[in-house]
Amino acid sequence: QVQLVESGGGLVQAGGSLRLSCAASGRIFSINAMGWYRQAPGKQRELVAVVTSSGTTKYADSVKGRFTISRDNAKNTVYLQMNSLKPEDTAVYYCNADVWVAGAGIDLYWGQGTQVIVSS
């Protein structure tokens, strides 16, 4: 009923920048929080950043001051601007969204993930 499609991952040198996008589509009535998570090899998935429908944001300590989450409610899209990237930022990045589906209620949806590799 709802699909999240991420884009913008890739290979970048340490100190560089990338911008991830995640667009939600389907039978969307409204979207509450939208967020970004990441999972490095051999590690658990962890929260990177989240933004509420009103624009309140929260960041993991490891990315504060380097990453910025934002959203365009008209486009049902969330962004993650990543600056000053470090090799330890290497992971698969997933977006999620708390979506009120038209006629069906609220559920949490995930994207398929996009790979970010930061070389030293």
Describe what you observe in this structure.
The protein is mainly beta and 120 residues long. 0% of the residues lie in helices and 62% in strands. It is built from no helices and 11 strands. The strands form 2 sheets. Strands 2, 4, 5, 6, 9, 10 and 11 form a 7-stranded mixed β-sheet that branches. The protein is elongated and about 50 Å long. The mean pLDDT is 97.
> Portion of residues in helices?
under 10%
Residue runs with pLDDT of under 50 for 5 or more positions:
none
Q: What count of helical segments does DSSP give?
A: 0
What proportion strand?
Answer: over 45%
N-to-C SSE string, H for helix and E for strand: EEEEEEEEEEE
Give the gist of this structure.
By secondary structure, the chain is mainly β.
Question: Keywords, please?
Answer:
7-stranded mixed sheet; 11 strands; 0% helix
Write the layout of secondary structure elements.
Elements: E1 2-7, E2 10-13, E3 18-26, E4 28-39, E5 46-51, E6 57-59, E7 67-72, E8 77-82, E9 91-101, E10 105-110, E11 114-119
Parallel strand pairs: 2-11
Antiparallel strand pairs: 1-3, 3-8, 4-5, 4-9, 5-6, 7-8, 9-10, 9-11
